[in-house]
Write a structure and sequence with these properties.
single chain; alpha+beta; 9-stranded antiparallel β-sheet
């Protein structure tokens, strides 16, 4: 899939932005007028994601900073560092939110990482093919740098109904999901791997390998919320 090479002017010219904007405005208005009760959902049990995935093993589990947790208010989360078969390190962050009606919801890494001083060197949308799956995983890929240290960040959003990469899609899905399913739950799946040297393709391939092992476990977790 091509990267983010379009300009805002091009989007407006093609008439894409205006319909999306009007839909979001209509949904926001409906949300203020309607009171839509949501189902009581069980947690997906993110802690059940194995500490060993193929040749990868979790070397460390971390807690979220209390100030960040109070701000984001995830209903469940996991932060782990996994070490791969070649010694590579991947930081995994999973955060689940039962509802988007009254909470901030997932904080996009494309915002929080630059806000923490990381410079975006490149960004694109891509897809990851999976064995025995009928569809690919759409992901955001960011290469960032701070103080001479570079990282590759991959992330997407997921629930038991869909997988998507673009942040605005969560807003588009909010009202239809509330009306049809009486739920607005969503999770953020984010991985970070340090980049060595001037390249990065080997680290990217390692991330893809890890994701292919992780994804079936996530499907099982989110299936618990059905």
């Amino acid at each position: 899939m091509a990267g983010r090479s379009f300009r805002v002017a091009d989007v407006l010219t093609k008439g894409f932005f205006v319909p999306i904007f009007l839909i979001l405005i209509a949904q926001a208005t409906a949300m203020r007028v309607l009171s839509i009760p949501e189902r009581e959902l069980p947690l997906p049990g993110l802690n059940s994601v194995p500490f060993k995935l193929g040749g990868w093993r979790a070397a460390e589990e971390q807690a979220m900073d209390p100030a960040v947790s109070d701000y984001l208010k995830p209903d469940e989360y996991v932060i782990r560092n996994y070490v791969g078969p070649r010694g590579e390190n991947v930081n995994l962050f999973l955060a689940y939110f039962k509802s988007l009606q009254n909470t901030y919801g997932p904080h996009s890494p494309s915002v929080c990482l630059p806000g923490a001083g990381w410079l975006v060197l490149s960004s694109k949308l891509s897809s990851i093919s999976l064995p025995n799956q009928t569809r690919d995983i759409p992901v955001n890929e960011f290469v960032l740098e701070r103080g001479g240290y570079r990282i590759l960040t991959l992330y997407w959003y997921q629930n038991n109904r869909d997988i998507w990469a673009e942040e605005f899609q969560a807003k588009l899905k909010l009202l239809p999901d509330l009306l049809r399913y009486h739920r607005s739950d969503v999770s953020l799946v984010r991985l970070i791997i340090p980049l060595q040297g001037t390249g990065g393709e080997q680290e990217r391939m390692s991330c893809m390998e890890f994701i292919r092992l992780l994804f079936p476990k996530l499907v099982e977790c989110f299936g618990q919320t059905a």
